[in-house]
Amino acid sequence: MVRNRNGTWWIPAIEPAGDAERSARPSRGTKLKKVLALPKGLVDPGEKAPETAVREVFEETGVTAELVSKLADIKYVYTRAWGDGQRVFKIVTFYLMRYISGRINVIAPEMRIEVARARWIRLEDAPKLLAYKGEKEMAQRAVEYVRAHGELVRGAENRSA
How far apart are CA 25 and CA 28, in angstroms? Predict the structure, then answer.
């Protein structure tokens, strides 16, 4: 999800909480300070992936967004750091969205088991700041999309949040 405020593009990033933070390893070279990730989650029964993306962004960040375009699918395997230590194959579909409304980090208390904090980061910095390789690539795709089609993703850009 992107937002333009005063000529600068921003995206929401989350700092995962508890076990969620330890569920996968950051890319090599990423300092082990705070893990920054993009909002994402599982598709609920009867839900389509684009609906899931919009819902997860709201649940994990507190902001409402609308779809602009699909960016890509990322496929990866990780080993659970908890429980049975099983290898998990995962496909994550990423969408570019535009900000509509809401205040960052105003999320339901029950989401705090997944999200320690949500905050805005500059879009141009996201490929360096995000912890995971695939998410870094998605941020770079968002940078390129906004450079080429900035007028298509402009929305409620100067509302307060």
Answer: 9
- Taken in order 114, 115, 116, 121, the sign of the CA dihedral is positive
Stated pTM of the model = 0.82
Answer whether residue 119 is part of any domain.
yes
Q: Which of 55, 9, 39, 56 is nearest to 158 (CA)?
A: 9
CA atoms within 13 A on the CB side of 20: 20
pLDDT digit string (tens) for the chain, length 161 residues = 999 999 899 999 999 997 544 444 555 554 446 899 999 999 999 999 999 999 999 999 999 999 999 999 999 888 887 778 899 898 999 999 999 999 999 999 999 999 999 999 999 999 999 999 999 999 999 999 999 987 766 665 544 44
Phi-psi region of 160 (alpha: psi -120 to 50; beta: other; left: phi over 0): beta
Distance in angstroms (rounded) separating the CA atoms of residues 117 and 59: 12
Domain count, the chain: 1
Spatial distance between the Cα atoms of 77 and 79, rounded to a whole number of angstroms: 7
Q: Is residue 158 part of a domain?
A: no
> Is the separation of the CB atoms in 106 and 97 below 8 Å?
no
